[in-house]
Amino acid sequence: MLSGPAPYAPPAAAPSVPVRPVVLEAVSGWVPPRVVPNAGLPGQWGVDDRWVRTRTGIERRHVADPGTSTGDAAVHAARQLLEKAGNPPVDALVLATATPDHLCPATAPAVAARLGLGTIPALDIAAVCSGFVYGLALCQGAVGTALFDRVLVVGADIYSHWLDPEDRSTGVVFGDGAGAALVARGQESDCAGALLGFDLGSDGSGYDLITVVGGGARARSLAAPEEPGDRYFRMRGRAVFQHAIERMTASCGAVLERVGWRPEEVDHFVPHQANARILTAVGKRLGIPADRCALHLREVGNTGAASIPLALADAQAGGRLRPGARVLVTAFGGGLTWGSAALLCPEAPAGLQSP
């Protein structure tokens, strides 16, 4: 007698991977030495210092010399951080940038090689000004699930090589720079530097608000030749302004709810340094006092993916960040993309121990 098919039995559940506490161990920043104050902007733009400060809050920006690439800036920031931290072992490198050295290959592997990190995995993230927050979230997941013990995450952009010299709307806003951070296994979930929660999002229907039209597969697929201006970074400022306020405010609210913080409990608010009016509007909507907002914008302009680590490093160097204090960071960028994170302020490194 033939027996019927065996009854279905679901597969045994895979053993769960424990999630370990993850911390932001250290952060550092680098900007090119050449400073361009508002008074030094091109005369044909028809702007003066008061005009720029009133509309953007920016007083000066750092601009890379010819021959200095995004990869160079990333190496400067990362090397400075690693030396400050005592050259700890690093298992992987994540580079957030919208201005890569090449369309192909990614810039991160070359940065890892130049830093002497060996054959570790290295990859780029292209989330524009949200890239550093995306990178932190990726690193938290990788370290928290024991894929890596320590990851170097870098945000770097050299916008000056990508801007149209005739376009004052982007020229007055953007500067060059890089910021680096170490994300590693922590001992306790409430220790200094702990990464507590994230909120990330995107809306591809607005991809054309911040873009470089030429160079990619879309432009190459068309029979018509590219226009001369297609190689430059473009931003539709008015539309971006409103999107940035709404998306960052909502994202901050989501992550605050996730970690159980009230806005008044945030010790330091570190938004992407895009425009002083945007930062003020987001802070007001959240109910976070202006004196808790880290404002590095006036010194460096909008540095893209480097913006948040540069602002964190500046506030820490100035003694304005108390280890263990509650920090809320948020960013908005092309894609459209946005992201926020809640963390406890890291301690200034004096050499790090292996995780």
Short characterization:
The chain has 355 residues and is an alpha/beta fold. 28% of the residues lie in helices and 22% in strands.
Could you explain the architecture of this structure?
The chain is an alpha/beta fold and 355 residues long. The chain folds into two domains: 22-185, Peroxisomal Thiolase, Chain A, domain 1 (3-Layer(aba) Sandwich), CATH 3.40.47.10; 195-344, 3-Layer(aba) Sandwich (Peroxisomal Thiolase, Chain A, domain 1). It is 28% helix and 22% strand. The chain has ten helices and 13 strands. The chain has helices at 49-56, 70-84, 108-114, 131-144, 168-171, 217-220, 237-259, 276-286, 297-300, 307-317, and strands at residues 22-30, 35-37, 60-62, 92-96, 122-125, 150-158, 176-185, 195-202, 210-212, 233-235, 268-271, 326-333, 337-344. The chain has a five-stranded mixed beta sheet, with helices on both faces. β4 (92-96), α3 and β5 form a beta-alpha-beta unit. It is globular, with a radius of gyration of 21 Å. The N and C termini lie far apart (62 Å). The model has no long low-confidence stretch (mean pLDDT 91).
